[in-house]
């Protein structure tokens, strides 16, 4: 499977298309995002009571409790991956102007594709952990021991230890690795979900596609930071206006407005995130038919 290299401006295109996709197809994509948000919140209904119980006892969670919480989070995280793929398929159907329903995010489970996608999730997790381990070892093993000391200091309410040598180099490398992993994950998931690629082939495509498109990924990251700053400023202004209304009218009225506003922000965030992933995959690995349709659909 061929992966393509795009110019730096493609990164900005991924962001703008990701922002626009939900507003072009609001009913299926925001509905699907609502189901996805609920699925992502389900693990918290199990792990949060366990954490609150440990906090109320006034003692840090035991190793067994921490391991159980982590195991539950990982298990649910793997089970949600087929829903991510289903949402990408939903975006693809909507952009191709084919029938698309919010419940289509469950298609990978209904069509027996879940195990292959869970396998991809496991493989991506291994790649992620291996990459972090390599960076930490390459920049000095003292970072790992510093992290454990920092955790112990936090539990015992003590000041954190001094930063070890090579810390900022490790931070820079981890940021670069995270940038590549963003492209890697979008491409590999798109290959399995939309091109029916096998897991190992999708991993190879994800690695080569991300390496070929470092510059557009960097421009996408910078553009996302700027957009996030603007959104944060707008959000802060809205919160201040609502606080003013709470003093003038009623705090209950403000609560009735801010909760739907916050939920809408979360749905938009999910829709934009998967819209970006879809358009990134389509630019790098999508077939020529899909790529040629993009201008017509956007118009």
TrEMBL record:
The keyword Transmembrane appears for this protein: yes
Bilayer-spanning residue ranges: 29-46, 66-87, 117-147, 167-187, 217-246, 252-274
Keywords: Membrane, Transmembrane, Transmembrane helix
Superkingdom of the organism of origin: Bacteria
Protein name: DUF4013 domain-containing protein
